[in-house]
Each structure stands twice: as C-alpha cells, then as structure tokens.
Design a protein that fits this description.
By secondary structure, the protein is mostly helical. Helix content is 76%, strand content 2%. It contains 12 helices and 2 strands. A two-stranded antiparallel sheet has the order 1-2. α1 runs parallel beside α5 and α8 (155-172) runs antiparallel to α9. The longest helix has 29 residues, at 227-255. The protein is flat, with a radius of gyration of 20 Å. The protein starts with 5 loop residues before the first helix and ends with a helix. The relative contact order is 0.10. Mean pLDDT is 87; it is low at 242-256.
Length: 256
Amino acid sequence: MIVTSRPVNLLILFICFIPFLFLGIFDLDEGAFAATSLQMVKDGQYLIPYIGEELRLEKPILSYWIQALFLTIFGFSEYSLRAPSLIAALIWGYGFATFVKENNTRVTRSDILINFFTLPGIFLISFAATADAFLNLFITLALINLYKFEEQKKNKYLNLAAAWIALGFLTKGFAIVAICGLVFLFYCFFNRKLNSFLSAILNIKAWTIFIIIVSPWLVYLYMQTSSEAVMYMLFGQSFGRFQTHLKTTADLFFIT
C-alpha cells in the first residue's frame, strides 16, 4: 500500500470535492427532494412534506428539514441543497476512519479518509441532494455502537445505537432497522454471541429512546393526514417497491 503524507491526502480530498461546488440538480430523486424542501420554506410549513398539492411521503421528514434549514440560511441554490449531504459524508467518513484507527493503529486517519472518499459510490453520494449520505452516516454510527456494545457490554453504546437508528428511521424509514438488525444478527450468529443480540433487541431503555425520537412526528402525521398515509410512508414506499420489482421479475420470467 502506498502511504502518503497527511497534507497530500487532504489536498487530494479537497480536489475530489471541487465539482460539488458547480453541479446542478440532474437526478429525478434530487429534483423531488429539492422541490419538497423549497416548498417547505416558501409555504412556511415544515411538518408535512408536499410537492404541489400532493403528499410527498416517499421518505420521512428529517432530510427535508435539514435541506430547508440550509435553504433558509444560505438561500435558494444548488449549494444549499448539496451542502447537507457533503457535511453528513464528512462526518460519516471521519466516524468510520476513527473507528478503523481505534482497531488498527498501523494506518492513519487521513489515509483511511482518502481511500474512503475516492470510492465511486461514496464520492457520488457525498454531494447528491438526497437522503443517502444521512442514511449511511446513521447506519455507520449505529453499527459502530452496536459493535462496542457487544465488545464492552456497556448499555450506553446500545442507547447511542438506538438514537442513531431512530434518526435513520426519520430519514429513510425501516431500511436502517432492517440493515442494522440483520448485520448485527449475522455478526452475533457467526461469532456465537447470540445472547448479545437478544440482549440488544429486548432492551426496554433502547426501545424507549427509539420511540421517543420517532413517535412525535409519526403521531402528528397521523393526526394531520390518515392512517393510510402513515402506512404508505412506513411500508408502501419501501416494501411496495420491492413487491413490484418481484412481480415484474416474475412476469418477465413467465413471459420468457
């Protein structure tokens, strides 16, 4: 492995993000996020996401709030829409690098960061005006704390994991629950530590933290819309797409 100096690593990292300053909105999802956040600011209504007169419940509320905050502070521009993802990605990368550094002292944090941010998928997510950078940030922080909980048997790490999962839930719904739950289950299973998994999922305080964070907005959404809207936001937009994809694949199979 080629090891470079920290200043060179940081310079390369800065150069990688120069295009971020000039990119316009070019993706359908970016356009939907941008339109929803812009309408929040213009209407002064920040609790229910809309595009025009239609509810926008493909994603929960948190990423819209963050984009709306940046639009309010920095004005209506692509920069305001992309900056939140960049900041989330930088925290994501720093958290990941710190965790790796704690467990492998032979590498430097700057070397980890330069390798991290030059991965094509991460590089693109880092300035996409969507919820993906935030989701990956919360997944990473949650899994790091679940790992520390299993290793050190301290409930403070489980409580932190519950908080990160709750924020991820408000970003992209059940995706983070499924991902973190399955990863932690497989880790505990293959390391013969299923007691740690059971201890985590049966911890009342962790569930209380999760519910306290996610329930206020869900209750408000239910009161202002309908149970069908809440169920669509929770299940339809994620599992509905999966079922549609399976049906399409099956139809193509039988046609073939």
